[in-house]
């Protein structure tokens, strides 16, 4: 499944590149005001931080919510105390787009993450051209040399890579990169199975000073509490926010 998702995102990017050549996207990326400092926005604090996700659907959970105006949802996330907004830009299975990201970027003043299956430079440039401050890199989807190249490009463009792992080995690869922001996804993107204990098992492998993010299946306050106790600096939450009252849900998560 992960291979299929990555191939789909890369195909869609190639189709966009026919209309908007790399050099043009690069010029747009470089013309943007500087990216926001996501490491500062997500720095460990007394309270857990929330990265709130704009998510309409997913292959594992199906349709989640009609989100006609991603910018209004994101504004609610900011008002509710989120530290950053994640925007799914994958079109086929998550029903997102780069237009969603651009609209969100205009509506909030906290950092915005491009959440997609990133495999080439064009997608990274597009992210910056649309105003992203952070870009997700999924360790399981990329060989180490490609991971390193994309990681460096994200940094050169002034953005912050969020490096996502789903095993002890993948956490080791994320640490080897020198990553300052590491996400542990409870969901296996190959099988879609959940492992809620994974974060607790690998958290100690992440060096002090690196920001630790627990991702996926954070549905209630007890999940947030469990991750906080296991050492999470932040949680990345989609479903619970798009299917409920975002402000009230954020409030309860932030009171942990
Ligand atoms: O909706 P949830 O279970 O709260 O999950 C959010 C986020 O962690 C999830 O969307 C996600 C994490 N890593 C990904 C990689 C690709 C696509 C999606 C994801």
UniProtKB/TrEMBL annotation:
The keyword Lyase appears for this protein: yes
Entry's Gene Ontology molecular function annotations: indole-3-glycerol-phosphate synthase activity; phosphoribosylanthranilate isomerase activity
Q: What EC number(s) has UniProt assigned to this enzyme?
A: 4.1.1.48
What name is this protein filed under? indole-3-glycerol-phosphate synthase
GO biological process terms held by the UniProt record: L-tryptophan biosynthetic process
Catalysed reactions, as listed in the record: 1-(2-carboxyphenylamino)-1-deoxy-D-ribulose 5-phosphate + H(+) = (1S,2R)-1-C-(indol-3-yl)glycerol 3-phosphate + CO2 + H2O
Q: Which PANTHER family match?
A: INDOLE-3-GLYCEROL-PHOSPHATE SYNTHASE, TRYPTOPHAN BIOSYNTHESIS PROTEIN
